[in-house]
Amino acid sequence: MALNKKPTTGMKDILPEEMRIREYVQSVIRDTYSRFGFTQIETPCVENIGNLTSKQGGDNEKLIFKILKRGEKLDIANATTEDEVVDGGLRYDLTVPLVRYYSNNSSVLPAPFKSLQMGNVWRADRPQRGRYRQFMQCDIDILGEPSNLAEIELILATTTTLGKLGFKNFQIRINDRRLLKAMATYAGFAEDKFDSVCITLDKMDKIGLEGVKAELLENGFDNTSVDKYLELFAGLENAQSDKNDPVASLKFIANALGDCLDSEIKDNLEEIITSVESTKEAQFDMVFDPTLVRGMGYYTGTIFEIAMPEFGGSCGGGGRYDKMVGKFTGQDVPACGFSIGFERIILLLMEGGFTVPGQPGKVAYLIEKGIGGEKLCEIIGKAQQARKDGQQVLVVRMNKNKKFQKDQLIGQGYENFEEFFNN
């Protein structure tokens, strides 16, 4: 029986053209983020299963690729629970590994610590456009900075990077998990039901206001509370004289919530929005979105997301997670992060016909079969000198079907050819 030549479901082979773009994008990310003071780190792709299943990763914890114990520790025959045979798993994001890394190494790290991490993560998800089971994530995080300077720097660094890659007219949607709780409190929902309410609210962009109402009622919530809750969003829509004014939208919701919302939360969001808008380099809009939820269980405050019209969905996001380090060390440390949707960015660039700028000239030396000895050394020596001068030179034997060979090389970006014959 022949071996299967196709990649495992949800994973893919990366061809040379895409690889060139991926490497270029990574170089832009490294260069831009380093200018903002972020330092690159690396963590193992395997984490302790207890860290990955600590009820912080939301639905992603259901998608872990788990790893069996090895050798004598693996006793499947006598095991009665999964815990007895599993001790590790492939990381489903880079945040949990980062927090473990910081907790283990904080004594030798600067404060605040500005981290850049790029690496593959794995989720046993349903594959679809722009979503794979193995995919690259690119995260920047600031640990040890309690003020909204962290959010401002993260948003500016991320959007500057996207601008350098040619993206514009996208949105940064922003909200706060504490504001979501204030809205649920205002409507009269029980505190232990807040998560359920937010899960339904998160579907607003797909099912609309009426769909959210129907689902909340189906879930057994009181009609009075549901109506009061949804009046916030309907009222915001009707009150927006300028839909491009995120501060006005924020103030409307804050005024409607009254004492249910701490004014500091509103002021914090307003300062982030106005600071970013007045200092940004890329072309994008800040949008206050009270329906933005973000699914990760570890977020404690500000949350944000990249919305791109070309993709029709999120191309990255992040937020503040001030309680996560404390789960490792017993002492909370303020933390905030932003992740670019690397695979979706690559997809959009490739669909748009993106070519890597500033590539060296590509020349192919086609050598007739039979050439060897001194003449071959002379040709290779010429290629070596051209490489020293900054050219990219491919030295290959000439095929019988030279036209087909050249067409293939042109498809790989080779613009010039030199041919060498025996005579």
What would you note in describing this structure?
The strands form three sheets. This protein has an eight-stranded mixed β-sheet, with helices on both faces. It has a three-stranded antiparallel β-sheet with strand order 2-4-3. It has a three-stranded parallel β-sheet with strand order 13-12-14, with helices on one face. Helices cover 41% and strands 20% of the residues. The chain contains 14 helices and 14 strands. The mean pLDDT is 91. Helix 1 runs antiparallel to helix 4 and helix 4 packs parallel to helix 10. The protein is an alpha/beta fold and 423 residues long. The longest helix has 20 residues.
What is the compact description of this entry?
41% of the residues lie in helices and 20% in strands.
Cα-atom radius of gyration: 27 Å
Number of helix segments?
14
What's the order of the H and E elements?
HEEHEEHEEHEHHHHHHEEEHEHEHEHE
Calculate the terminal CA-CA distance, rounded to whole Å.
49 Å
Largest sheet: 8 strands, mixed
* Binned strand content: 15-25%
Mean pLDDT: 91
Strand order of the largest sheet: 1-5-6-11-10-9-7-8
Shape: globular
Number of strands: 14
Which assembly state applies to the chains in this document? single chain
- Which stretches are low in confidence, meaning pLDDT under 50 for 5 or more residues running? none
Proportion of helical residues:
40-55%
Question: Helix/strand/pairing class, anyone?
Answer: alpha/beta
